[in-house]
Amino acid sequence: MSIGCHFLGVTLRDLPIVYTGGTFDLFHAGHVNFLQQCNRLGDVVVALNTDEFIEAYKGKPPVCSYAERAAVLESCVWVDLVIPNTGGADSKPSIEAVSPHYIAIGTDWARRDYYAQMMFDQDWLDERNISLIYIPYTHTISTTKLKARSADRNRF
Questions:
Q1: Mean per-residue pLDDT for 109-135?
Q2: Which CATH superfamily is domain 21-106+121-137 in?
Q3: What angle do CA 107, 82, 1 make, to 5 degrees?
Q4: 20-24, 40-44, 68-72, 116-120: the lowest-pLDDT one
Q5: Which long-range contacts link 73-79 to residues 24+ away (Cβ below 8 Å)?
Q6: Which among 154, 145, 135, 148 has a CA at the least distance from the CA of 36?
């Protein structure tokens, strides 16, 4: 895919393409911070995990359905396009469909094996001229922290 093109009914700006993927359940300020920083690098394409994949991977379904999570992301000014992560644990099909210049991930992955998680390695990225970029993680909020906060407040 070339930059400045029309893709899946969306006209992208004439900028590099930034791919990121995730669940984005209970959309919060940490998600906004991450996506805003991605947007500074180029057009942001989010590969959104399906409900089925999330349940298989995490052992429980997301709080919000795929359609609800996609609607929230599509309304975010920092996101240019939302696509389903159709490959589940194997993100390569979604990445190849987008042909990004960058894959952006949070620094919370810096000490985890992101390559094994995504089922590719640096050679695979190099063959496609894709750079992996770490975006600072917002430590003060997460979906897990929101769920805990809600549970604490609902005890009374």
A1: 83
A2: HUPs (3.40.50.620)
A3: 90
A4: 116-120
A5: 73/24, 73/27, 73/46, 73/48, 76/27, 76/32, 76/35, 78/32, 78/35, 78/36, 78/38, 78/39, 78/44, 79/35, 79/39, 79/44, 79/46
A6: 135
For 75-130, where are the E strands, in sequence order?
81-85, 102-106
**Residues 23-57 pLDDT 10s:** 999 888 889 999 999 999 999 999 999 999 999 98
- The residue extents of the domains of the chain are 21-106+121-137
Choose the catalytic residue: 60, 92, 145, 147. Answer: 60
3-class secondary structure, 153 = helix
Cα 147 to Cα 3, 17, 66, distances in angstroms: 39, 32, 18
Active site residue 145: no
Q: In the predicted model, is pLDDT for residue 88 greater than 70?
A: yes
When pLDDT is averaged across residues 110-130 and rounded to a whole number, the result is 81
Mean pLDDT value of segment 97-119: 81
Q: Which pair of tokens denotes residue 108?
A: 């919370």
Give the active site residue among 58, 92, 145, 147: 58
